[in-house]
Amino acid sequence: QAQLVESGGGLVQAGESLRLSCTATGVTFSRYAMGWFRQAPGKERTMIAAIAWNGLNTVYADSVKGRFTVSRDNAANLLYLQMMNLRPEDTAVYYCAKARHPFGVASRYPTDFGSWGQGTQVTVSS
């Protein structure tokens, strides 16, 4: 079964940058669209970025568009989220996810994803 592991979270000040990474095992990573979601305490999990299986299209939540960039390196079996100009409202647990079906485009909907990582905490102080 697929196992996803996020890394790169931490504590930063507002305006700083951070890069998250996700690696997948037990699956052919390069065949699947991938996504990044986040969840703050007491809030629903929401999509922030997703990328097609081949990296040719991406989608972003309005709240992060222009600040965050999702990318992937299929040869290295890695998914990235580059976060720029972080704000306190970006504080959340960040999760990577794998699409249920192979060769898909980027999706905004969590039901399209069948495997999830354990999450990595991002905290942005003012």
Whole-number mean pLDDT? 95
First and last CA, distance: 40 Å
SSE succession = EEEEEEEEEEE
* Total E-strand runs: 11
Helical residue percent? under 10%
Shape: globular
Work out the strand percent: over 45%
Sheet with most strands: 7 strands, mixed
Q: From the alpha carbons, calculate the radius of gyration and give it in angstroms.
A: 13 Å
Number of helices: 0
Are there runs of 5+ residues with pLDDT below 50, and where? none
Structural class: mainly beta
Structural descriptors:
mainly beta; 126 residues; four-stranded antiparallel β-sheet; 0% helix
How would you describe this protein?
This protein is mostly beta strands. 0% of the residues lie in helices and 53% in strands. The protein has no helices and eleven strands. The protein has strands at residues 3-7, 10-13, 18-25, 32-39, 46-51, 58-60, 68-73, 78-83, 92-102, 113-116, 120-125. The strands form two sheets. Strands 2, 4, 5, 6, 9, 10 and 11 form a seven-stranded mixed β-sheet that branches. The protein has a four-stranded antiparallel β-sheet with strand order 1-3-8-7, with no helix packed on it. A hairpin with a 6-residue loop joins strand 5 (46-51) and strand 6. The protein is globular, with a radius of gyration of 13 Å. The mean pLDDT is 95.
